[in-house]
Amino acid sequence: MNTKLTLNLEKNIIESAKDYAKHNKTSLSKLIENYLKSLTEKEENTTVSPLVESLTGIIPQEPEKKYKKEYADYLNKKYS
Fold first, then answer.
1. DSSP-H helix ranges across 1-80
2. How far apart, in whole angstroms, are the C-alpha atoms of residue 9 and residue 37?
3. SS3 for 74?
4. How does 21-46 read in b/e, with b if 16+ C-beta sit within 10 Å?
5. Which of 6, 10, 26, 56 lies most in the core, judged by the most C-beta atoms within 10 Å?
6. Alpha-carbon distance 41 to 45, whole Å?
7. How many domains does the chain have?
8. Residues 17, 31 contacting (CB under 8 angstroms)
9. Are 18 and 28 in contact (CB under 8 A)?
10. How remote is the C-alpha of 15 from its chain's centroid?
11. Is residue 69 one of the residues assigned to a domain?
């Protein structure tokens, strides 16, 4: 059973949401319903496939500082 809900939101957010819904061929009501449903569903319903589970940890993680330095070097070279 559907029930009416009134929301007070900023006008620009409503307009952006309507554009997003139209672009994705859905209604604003369905968009909000799906979002609220995703927030309130229990996480135990989320399962990871065996393939994804087997791939977990395959790619080694390097220290984040290395990426930051490489990115900073890239930006310095690009804008210098």
1. 11-23, 28-40, 50-55, 64-79
2. 19
3. helix
4. beeeeeeeeeeeeeeeeeeeeeeeee
5. 26
6. 8
7. 1
8. yes
9. yes
10. 19
11. no
Amino acid identity at 54: S
Residue 65, pLDDT score: 64
Task: List, for residues 25-80, the tens digit of each pLDDT value.
Answer: 999 999 999 988 888 876 655 677 888 778 777 666 666 666 778 888 888 898 88
For residue 43, give its domain range: 9-56
Q: Is residue 72 part of a domain?
A: no
Are 25 and 36 in contact, with CB atoms under 8 Å apart?
no
Looking at the domain assignment, is residue 73 inside a domain? no
Only one residue has tokens 């309507």, namely 18
Token readout for 60 is 């080694």
pLDDT at 10: 93
